[in-house]
Amino acid sequence: MPFPPTDLLTNASLFIDFDGTLVDLIDQPDDVIADEALRDLLARLIARKVGSVAVVSGRSIAQLDAMLGPIARSIAVSGSHGAEYRWNDITAHPIRPDSLDRVEDAFRVFAATAPGVLVESKSFGAALHYRRAPDAAVAARKIAASLGVRFGLAVQHGHMMVELRVPGSDKGVATRRLMAQAPMIGTRPIFIGDDLTDEPGFIAATELGGCGILVGPPRATAARYGLSDSTAVRAWLATA
User: What is the set of active-site residues?
Assistant: First the structure.
C-alpha cells in the first residue's frame, strides 16, 4: 500500500488506534506500557495543533488512562469500540449489562480448559485472547458466538482474539461522533489502525472527506495508505 504523504496532516484530525498502532501487540495485553516517548509524541501533536487528536481503542477509557497518564486528559479518548468517550471533561457511556459478568464467567471456565487462552475484562466487554493458544481459535469463536446470541451482545473479532461487547457502537460511530463537534468540524479525519476493528473507522473517515491508514501487512481494507508497524506510525506522526 502507498506510504501516506505528510501533507495529510495539514488541517487534519487524527483518530489513532492504540494496540498494534501506537504500541506493539504482545501476548499479555495487561503488560502493555505507553512509554515516555509516546506520551511526548502525543503532547507535541497537541502543541502543534494538528487539528485534534483522538485515541480510539477497544480498551476501556480506564485502561487508557492508566497506560497514557495525564496526557489522556488533553486528547479525545473513545474506548470500548466507541461505546464510551471523553472530551473536554465531558464523559458519556452506556450502562454495563449484567450479562457481561456471566459472559466473563463462562470465558474463564473455557480458558481453564485451554492453556494459553487469556480472559480480558473490560468496562463494556469481555475478550478471549488466544495468541498463545492458536489451536483454541475455533472453539473460542464458537463459544463467543453462542454467548453473543444468548445475551444479545455484539461479537467483535480481532488479532488472535474475540470479544463480546455492548452492541450499537464501533470505531466508525466514534469517529462520526467526534467529527460532529468543534474543533474537529471542518477538518480532515485521518484514521490510523491495524485491526479488523478499525475498518469502520477507515470507512467513516473516508466518507467524511479523509482516509484510513492501515498498520501492518497489506490485506483487504478500506484504508488508502499503509505503514509497516508502530515504529513507522510514530515516525510519520513526528513529521507533523
Answer: 17
Q: 234 to each of 12, 20, 64, 92, 206, how far by Cα in Å?
A: 16, 12, 18, 29, 22
Record the pTM. Answer: 0.84
Statement: residue 3 has pLDDT above 90:
yes
Q: Kindly give the residue spans of alpha helices, DSSP state H, lying in 48-119.
A: 61-68, 99-112
Cα dihedral: 53, 55, 56, 58 (round 10): 180
Q: What is the pLDDT of residue 12?
A: 94
In order of their start, the domains of the chain are 6-94+169-237 (3.40.50.1000), 99-165 (3.30.70.1020)
- Length of the chain in residues, anyone? 240
Q: What pLDDT does 188 receive?
A: 95
Task: Tell me what percent of the chain is helix, strand and coil, each rounded to the nearest 5.
Answer: 40, 25, 40
What cell does 70 get?
495525564
pLDDT of 25 reads 79
Cell of 127: 475478550
